Amino acid sequence: MNQAGYQLSPDLPEEMRPWRDRPVAWENASPSSGAYRLNADGVYLYYPGGGSTGYDHPVGQCQFGLGCIASYRTETDPARKALFLTRAKAQADRLIARRFEDRSAWWFPYGFDFTHTVHSGVSYKAPWYSGMAQGEAISLFVQLAELDALTDDERAAYLAAADAAFASLQVVDDGYPWATNVDSAGYLWIQEYPGAEPGAGDYTYNGMIYAMFGVWDYYQATSSPEAAALYDACATTIARYWPLLRNAKWCSFYCQTHRIPAYTYHQHHIELFGQLNWQTSSPDFADHVDRLVDDYPAPGVAGTVAFEAGSHVLYQFDTAASGGWVSGKGDALLESKGVTFAQDTQAPASMRRRIQGRGIYYLISAGAYAGWWVGESWSKAYLLGEHLTTVYRPTRTVTFPGGSVPVDTYRVAADGTVLSVKTVAFANPSNAPTDRRAIVNGRPMFQITAGGLTGYWVPAGSVTIDAEPAVG
Fold it and tell me: Of 45, 208, 237, whose CA–CA distance to 132 is shortest?
């Protein structure tokens, strides 16, 4: 089993710990209609087609429970706080009550038949099992046990459940159910969709990383050397197969087996790799986030585009009415035209996204050119302000070039106004720490956190980071 020596960060701030970023809103704490809703006991069940028969969905139950715990931690109203705790406990108790015990481990069965509509070969008859559910159950049990409101008996019961769930990730794939296997190259996987045969699975990236969060939680609670070794092996696998996950200048791939671009999962990959950076303190995963953000940035960014005086080319692409990507349309070019502005001007944009097979574009949302797209090109046309910020932990190191090469750095207001510019030039390469990267006025930039440039942004294309050329 390959291990590169990834270490688990022991002192993450609360907001950076697993699942804190996915709280359940109060209005969603008691779902009563739709495909996922609560039964009379407050258990989150799956009702296919919104029908009347509910089935256990362990990942859904774990994520709903973990979201309720996240809300419990920040809720100040006592009644709401109590309900969030009740909801979380109901999910954990259901998993424990419906567990299947085999090979000294607990397994959490799905109660319905399932065939993946996109990925061939992923087809199950109930009951079936998922490594993603096994890992997320560990997080649910551990995080419940951490709460002060529990009795000693409840805490002990949930920690025992975490032990039994963790044991499932130690079981090899020589029987069914199983969740982990080592591939032919010696890399360990936690399979979201394990097959009936040893090693058969989809080799799904997001499901494995979510399961890793359970291993991280378990290590924080127990200091288990087995958990540390398992996490190291998993992180080593993700780093090794990063080139197969990435789909340069488009959406990343969902799994290794099918290599289908994951339009609906790409943003999850960005968030997950960011958490891997925090959990391991490794710049490897921070670099992966940078590249994923630039390959296919989140399209929900809007704002004001600044146009430089002069000539520009505007485009119309075949998209959804909102400007979103549609597989059957493929962003095909419909029309283009040139425009000329006698002076610098601005226009509102409702979307910033990569156009398939092209660069980053803005969709103009009002005025004479509403419905037209313009390509991002600093300083000809760019979105004002700071967008798509990635926070690093720990800080990374940017290196300014030597040879007295001038580099401009910027202090920028929230609206994109440049407050000041400092031009620096160093005879020898010079290092500075950075704690974040963002798209600032249309360019990837790093914010400096120490020295005379504290608070200034430096364009990524002007420096290297962690001794590698920066993305951008």
Answer: 208
- Cβ(457)–Cβ(424) below 8 Å: no
d(CA 95, CA 50): 22
The candidate with the shortest Cα–Cα distance to 85, out of 101, 73, 100, 97, is: 73
pLDDT digits (tens, 9 = 90+) for 78-99: 999 999 999 999 999 999 999 9
Angle (CA) 82-88-94 rounded to 5° is: 130
Question: Would you say 412 and 421 are in contact if contact means Cβ atoms under 8 Å apart?
Answer: no
- Residue 469: beta bridge partners? 464
> Is there a contact between 298 and 452 (Cβ–Cβ < 8 Å)?
no
Report the C-alpha gap between 110 and 430 in whole angstroms.
55
CA 406 to chain centre: 36
Contacts of 410 (CB under 8 A, 6+ apart): 418, 420, 421, 440, 441, 445, 456, 457, 458
Is residue 381 within 8 Å of residue 442, measured between CB atoms?
yes
Q: Please, which residues bridge with residue 229 across strands?
A: none
- In sequence order, the β-bridge partners of residue 337 are 314
Sign, CA torsion 345/349/352/355: negative
Place of tokens 């609206």: 415
Each residue of 412-457: pLDDT tens digit?
999 999 999 999 999 999 999 999 999 999 999 999 999 999 999 9
Query: What sections of 304-455 are H helices per DSSP?
Result: none
